[in-house]
Amino acid sequence: MSAGDVRSPAVGLAPAVGRLDHLRPVTAAGTDTVPRTVPDLCAEFAAVCESAVDPLEIASALEFDGLTDQLIRERYGYGNVFALASEMYVQVPRQPAEPEPAPDPWPVSRLTPLLHGLLYGLPAVCFPAAAALLAGPGAHAVLITALLAAWAASQALASLGYQRLGRTTDRDQARRLLRAGMLAGLLLITVIMAGTGLLLHARLSLFVFGVGEGAYMLGACVLLVLGAEKWLLAALAPGIVGSVAFLVLGRPPGLEHAAWASLALPPVLAVAAALTATRTTGTRTPGGPLAGLVPRGLFVPAELRGAVPAAAFGLVAAGLLAYPVVTAVPGHPGVNSGALLASLPLSLSMGAAEWSMLAYRRRTRSLLRSSTDLRAFGRRSRLMLAAALGQYLLAAAVLTAATALIATRTGLVTPSPVLVPELIVYLILGGALFLALALQALGLRAVPLVACAGALAFEMAWPELGLAVQLAAVIGLFAVLAAYAGRSLALAMRHAF
Hints:
Elements: H1 3-6, H2 13-20, H3 38-44, H4 46-51, H5 55-64, H6 69-76, H7 81-91, H8 111-121, H9 126-131, H10 139-167, H11 171-200, H12 204-225, H13 229-248, H14 256-277, H15 301-326, H16 337-348, H17 350-370, H18 374-409, H19 419-441, H20 446-461, H21 467-488
Helix pairs in contact: 2-5, 5-7, 8-16, 8-17, 10-11, 10-12, 10-15, 11-12, 12-14, 13-14, 15-16, 15-20, 16-18, 16-19, 17-18, 18-19, 19-21, 20-21
């Protein structure tokens, strides 16, 4: 809605105050400079009269300009300043000045979403190299458990960090929270991986890789929340270079130790960078270095409750991404290579999703300031959401096609009849997750979480149907979220904050 529709009356004083800054009190010697008639006076004070919400604002401006009751009686024939102000209020139509554009609440560089897309997608390059090193009993189950735990923990930590940054201007407090949350999450993931490894009799290398995956995601979460993502790119570089070299050379057994070393560096460097980024300038807590690790009152119950839906959504979203990978294609036991291939461009497309989301929120914010009709706002906001979704899907489709072309031409993936349908499944899933993230960004968390959980449960209920059930699940999920977003995000109140 327009600013005039949503501002309180007190805010209407702003134009008058701006006008007063340019007025000078009239002294007795300077009374001849005062307009001789009321229309001339209205013209002189036009900016004040047009923006005034009541005659008192005009009276205040007149008094500030030195017009006394005596001068008003002698020159204009009104009993006092309030009577003259009331007449001026009637004579001058209201034409409030447009407020200054509000500062952009998302001051993000155009290159930042591109960088984030690389950071989201590049870790997937390490998995083909790791696959040759992680064979053994329970490998798939252990790695999927690590992915689920890491996504849930990192989503919860991101929620806590953003909540704290939104509540306080003390960045040291947010840094302490992120550091404590990262260490607590790393401990939790280590316990989960140890229990999973013991239960499935998995090799030690699987346990180490799973903990490393969780450490990288938690460290990356801290750096992204604090806007220090450039450090993360440096942390990823050794793992990417080592993995690519290992794959290009044909995975020679003599380079396995070097490959392991390159894969171990990103999580170590990410956590080290996160610990450096969360250093505070405050005084050290008495009682030794460990006494201040989790200061009393650091975790606020309300923030913890707010992080629960984020953790649950991270868990369910990771399940939707990972379940098709471990569901064997009929006649082709083992990992579903089509799904594994499709997950890489979907990860890369998260940068495009971020860019489209920022553009959508800026457009709806601008529309909110200029609209005067709720129905018109609803129609245009739906079109803006559809445009943002279309932009994201186009970028995801291009990335998917490019990834599939490179993978098939280089022999990493053998073309099969199910490859294209699997890529389509993940493309639809990407659109559904984009809508889910848009809804969560505007405070609507319950429906996306329930819808995604329902889609995952549907896939797991009929695993023997393979691709057919995956396709039905993501189409249903997309339809539900599109309908809900089209109705809920068309409300002006959803974009007011």
